[in-house]
Amino acid sequence: MFNVMVVDDDANVREGLKLVVPWEEYGFIIAEAACDGEEALQKYKRQSFDLIVVDMRLPKANGLELISSIRKMDSRVHFLVLSGYADFEYAKRSIDCRVDGYILKPVDEEELIEYLIRIGEALKKERQREWLDGENSAAVILEDGSNEILIKNMLDFIEENYSDKLTLEMCAGRFNYGSGYLGRLFKKHIGESFNTYLDRVRIQKAKALLLRGMKVYQVAELTGYSNVDYFNLKFRKYLGISPSQFRKRKDL
What we know:
Arc Repressor Mutant, subunit A; five-stranded parallel β-sheet; alpha/beta; globular
């Protein structure tokens, strides 16, 4: 299933979109919903989405601002833009942001289905290309016998960039391998997934910074967590206590 996030400040629209078409029949599932641009951006940073359906007019950050912010970090994600009225200038700017479609409210069921079919086909082709890239990468690695070197380079890359919004896709782009293959190779050699290892590195760095007396929100930013609540959840997951509690326990 392809993950979808719906972003609209109208709760009726958010709920209505879940019912207007049978998403799962077309390979999609609505995994998240957000009521404004800021909330949507935070949820994007915590979870991967294949398609984001976003209203043009949003509080805090409008639809185009949200798309532009995400597009700077992710060229892969697909967008469908919703609008309550025809606006040529907005539509043109949406195209400039490489969105997949522009739908007027109320949403027409057949029009939305057409977009889902088209985007679903594009996503399937993208995943097939990624798989083929991974297979080709595997052949190259087997010929070169350079698995260990590649893994060492990945570990060095994580160590140097853990404070950024680092993803497996970024790492794959850096070393010119398919992300699917690289993820499998990493887990085989390290014994855990790329994201889990990255979290462990960040938490270790966070422990050192907390013991130096830094504020929790400062440590979160310096270790790659743009959301302090998410940092708290991760810290508690790995250590069983909050960052604030950790500072009081020097024996850990």
